[in-house]
Structures
1.
Amino acid sequence: MIIAKSFEFDAGHRLVKGYVGPCSNLHGHRYKVEIELESTALNEYDMVYDFLDLSFVKKWIDDTLDHKLMLYKFDPIVSVLENAEEVNVDSVVLFDNNPTAEYIAKVIFTHILEHTEIPARLLCAVKVWETPKCWAKYHGDYVPEI
């Protein structure tokens, strides 16, 4: 059985690490995040997991990603922003890779595993939508074919 809970946040980003195309310009999205939990058995309350106990994910997203500018840590614009007096550097989130939907899904998945009491066996996937028609889904045990 699979359950899911969704959250939304607004953020800006751009892709620069080897990327050439329209997404290399600064732009923003209204992101949607979906957390999926899966179990073959229900708990003592006849649930996979209590939806209320997933509220910490929304708080972390709001505190960490909402209304922030997400950038690759070696994006040339980072030094410009760090030296601009009118820019709040706390509003910039730096990632080890391009802030794609795929990478953001992985970051959220990893955060959930490392900072919560959700058993790893229950966390099935994190899905991140950049637009209503485009999304990426990260499974922790996914290994791409080469």
Note: The longest strand covers residues 2-13.
2.
Amino acid sequence: MKLSNETKVGLLTAVALTILILGYNYLKGQKLFSGQQTYHAVFNNVSGLLKANPVLLSGLQVGLVEDIQLKDGRTDSFLVTFIVDAELKLPSNTNVTMQSTSPVLGETVLTLNIPSIADASKTFLKDGDTVKGVDQSSLLDTAKDELIPIKEKVDKMMLTLDSTLFAINVILRSDEVMKTIENVSASVGNVQSSLANLEGIVENVNDFTENDLQHVGVILRNVSNLSETLESDIVTKVDNVVVEAKDVLANTERITAKIAEADINTTIDEANSAITEIKALTHEIQNGDGSMSKLINNDELYNNIEDVSFNVNELLVDVKKNPWRYISLFGKKKRTWKNNDSTETPPQE
């Protein structure tokens, strides 16, 4: 049977369209001869996400974004439909996130997050089910929560470093350190002067006599002794400065640690409570009816005490002057003397 030209053109066009459609789907990543399952996810923002963008699982493409539309007509909720290979079984606690793979091009993909075997659900999602979508803002909040403790530790470290540097600065600017540096500079200047003198002596050494050479030897020994003494003094002073600096740094660290560990708020609260109690006690003494209040505020009680004190004092004076008025010897009757102001002598037996 002979085909007409029109029939041949029609068949060729149909084959070309079939190849074009299959090739287009193949380039998008769709498997042509295997089954696929459709899932949905809801996001608040789909910036950068387009149809036909890849769906990844641990970096491997397992599907494509099929459709993006508003959910229930709302402008703050988007329903994303995507397809994955039918061979891939997703546990019911799987979630999907959007991830930017190219900051320059702005391409965004969907990433499936399947829990570990120990945490994975025993049930699996079915074709057409909705997967939990996690917005990028939630990921940023999680990262922020993890970074805040690190930031606080860095801030504390910077405070400690600032205190340490301040202590070192105080040490370096102290009068003792400045005096030591001045002494070292003066010693170096003296050594340089001595070396300059030695250079002048060496230039004229050929003109020296034996006595002159002996004098040069004595000078060299003196210079050597001076250098050793200076070196010993400098090393000792520098060691002392280093030891003092270490002590200051250790004290600074201990003070910083005690300040960090101290519960200042509790101490202030206890002090305020003690002050309140003292104020209440003072108010009660000034305005109350107790013994302490009467002793302080009642003039009559004070005057009575003053009178009693005066009478006791008078009694003691009279006892010292006339003890026989208050003592009866050998069982005899008590005798009375009329003179109350002078010292009396008891009658002799």
Note: The longest strand covers residues 60-70.
3.
Amino acid sequence: MERRFGAPHRRAPSTLRRQRSQGGAWHASGVVPAAGTPDPSQYAAGYSERLWPSLGVWAALIAIPAMLGLVVLPFGPAPAIATAIAVPALVIVLVTHGTPRVAVEKGILVAGRARVPVRLLGDVEVLDAEAMRLARGARLDMRAYLCLRGWLTTGVKVELRDTEDPTPYWLISSRRPAALAAALAAATAQS
């Protein structure tokens, strides 16, 4: 889930907007990929991934609402069939529109609705399933920006080095965390 902790009126960090309004007075830092990441040069063109649900999640998202047709069956077959078709269709539309995109393009890291220039990023840590479980739980800083999906067990932790943003890091789910870290390293080297 994408969540933003802190004041309820705050939206995702908008460092890109602040950069334009303040003339670019930012502290640059490098991205250090974890050991074993792919060669950054192969990701010079960018990185993009949609955090789609797994097949099991899709099956549940379609089957459970379709079962509502059984609940409506006492009212007749027509309402039951309409419910069994309309509710799963609505769920598919909502999940499709709510699936975040994670990308590194044109020197910007995109995670859901949030964007940040890569020159404002610090260390990037590739998280396996166990490290991600701890990062989402006991080690979570409530000020962190989260772009998480429960069906993805791996991801990255990206530190922010923006002194004007209270967010210490972004925690991002990914099916290919090593590739994401390599793309961040390549984008940082180019900026």
Note: Strands lie at 2-4, 47-50, 101-105, 108-111, 114-117, 121-127, 145-147, 155-160, 169-173.
4.
Amino acid sequence: MDMWHTMPRESGIYLIRNTVSGKVYVGSALCLRKRVVEHRRLLRAGKHRNPALQASWVKHGEGAFSIEALEICASEDATLLAAEQRHMDDLAKGASLYNACPVAGTRRGAKMPPEAVAKIADQKRGNAYRLGAVIPQEMRERIAEKLRGRKANPETKAKLSRARRGKPKSDEWKRKISEIHRGREISVEQRAKIAAKLKGRKIPAEVLAKRLATIAARKKEAQDARLHHPPLQDR
């Protein structure tokens, strides 16, 4: 019988060691034997969810790996995870871990490789799920109340700015923004902040031309309105 099938059937903490590199994988299970045999099955099939461990298995071969039961403990989740975390912390002091997550039982702290991040981004790009969905007014109010007063940090603001830059705005969106700002009074303090922020900034020629065209169009609209609807004179 091979070592994989000699593991205890009790719950506890196990270790898979690469005897060539010294790198180890630590895990917990309700049945140690069942878990390590499942690890081997996935590794042999090339389908293990830990890419670093799978790559080492392919590179060094099955014979380069050994397993051992580090601790037999109670089957409660909290007990198992606490024991797993303790062994991970102890082993990390002198060995390199295959474990992608530094916190046992969670994905917290896990670092995804760039190719995985790119793959997820491609999958989500253009996702039309819930496109056009109507959010109830009550939910809108709850979201607004939760976000009211919250200030984004500079890094988040920069990311949002880059994401929005160059995206075309629909006529409906422009109309809504125009209605929101129409008649809005800007305080002297706010004007001073805006002026200080824009001081020395060069406005591109095409942006300046658009602004001037907009101002001219508004003036013309106001003039036409006065011509067609002259003010009533007192008699």
Note: The beta strands are 12-18, 24-29, 65-72.
